[in-house]
């Protein structure tokens, strides 16, 4: 099934809001009984420059600081970032290959030059792409796009360029892929819980943050507590 299961790759340059685009796409699927695993990595800015990243476990809503530009002798150094051992362990647990019977969508934010050098999430990605997996969504910087596709031999990439793509259309395409994944599981005899609505009648749910009083401009992707500022 994995040879035919798409990997959606949200791409753009640094600062072109790849994570924000992903965040919005997930906001439109989380209310549709979609079982999501993986990580989201919102960045932090200090004095006009990227200063670090927080990691969000999409299955649990838990979060952990991943890395920063502040020197720390306990940390792994990649580029100008110091990766905290707790953050790396947290992310690697979140990216353990999922049970296909219990996952509809796998998310990796982001796949970058450190992974292409064999670091950070490289081992987890290696395992994910060689095992049966549900549809995946990655974020990848544009200049690394072709290299990432070739490196992991992605046979069915769906490239989503944040400069021109529609969040709504992308969410609809992701939901179509999830429907196909679930139908394939049903044909193979695996039990899967139903998705609401019909196969060709995707209507995006109300953004999860709206029910909690969050601004419509900063929707939460989780039913609990995460927002870009929180």
From TrEMBL:
<dbReference type="Pfam" id="PF03266">
    <property type="entry name" value="NTPase_1"/>
</dbReference>
<keyword id="KW-0067">ATP-binding</keyword>
<dbReference type="InterPro" id="IPR027417">
    <property type="entry name" value="P-loop_NTPase"/>
</dbReference>
<dbReference type="GO" id="GO:0017111">
    <property type="term" value="F:ribonucleoside triphosphate phosphatase activity"/>
</dbReference>
<dbReference type="GO" id="GO:0005524">
    <property type="term" value="F:ATP binding"/>
</dbReference>
<feature type="region of interest" description="Disordered">
    <location>
        <begin position="210"/>
        <end position="230"/>
    </location>
</feature>
<dbReference type="GO" id="GO:0016301">
    <property type="term" value="F:kinase activity"/>
</dbReference>
<protein>
    <submittedName>
        <fullName>Nucleotide kinase-like protein</fullName>
    </submittedName>
</protein>
<keyword id="KW-0378">Hydrolase</keyword>
<dbReference type="InterPro" id="IPR004948">
    <property type="entry name" value="Nuc-triphosphatase_THEP1"/>
</dbReference>
<keyword id="KW-0547">Nucleotide-binding</keyword>
């Amino acid at each position: 099934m994995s040879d035919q299961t798409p990997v959606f790759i949200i791409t753009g340059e640094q600062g072109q809001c790849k994570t924000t685009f992903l965040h919005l796409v997930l906001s439109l699927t989380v209310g549709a009984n979609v079982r999501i695993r993986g990580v989201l990595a919102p960045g932090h800015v200090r004095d006009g420059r990227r200063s670090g990243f927080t990691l969000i476990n999409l299955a649990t809503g838990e979060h952990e600081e991943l890395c920063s530009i502040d020197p720390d002798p306990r940390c792994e150094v990649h580029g100008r970032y110091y990766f905290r051992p707790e953050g790396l362990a947290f992310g690697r647990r979140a990216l353990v290959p999922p049970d296909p019977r219990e996952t509809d969508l796998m998310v990796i934010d982001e796949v970058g030059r450190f992974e292409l050098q064999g670091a950070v999430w490289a081992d987890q990605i290696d395992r994910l792409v060689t095992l049966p997996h549900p549809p995946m969504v990655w974020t990848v910087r544009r200049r690394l796009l072709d290299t990432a596709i070739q490196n992991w031999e992605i046979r069915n990439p769906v490239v989503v360029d944040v400069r021109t793509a529609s969040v709504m259309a992308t969410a609809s395409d992701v939901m179509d892929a999830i429907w196909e994944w679930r139908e394939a599981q049903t044909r193979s005899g695996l039990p899967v819980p139903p998705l609401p609505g019909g196969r060709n009648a995707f209507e995006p749910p109300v953004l999860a943050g709206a029910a909690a009083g969050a601004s419509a401009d900063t929707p939460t992707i989780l039913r609990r507590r995460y927002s870009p500022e929180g």
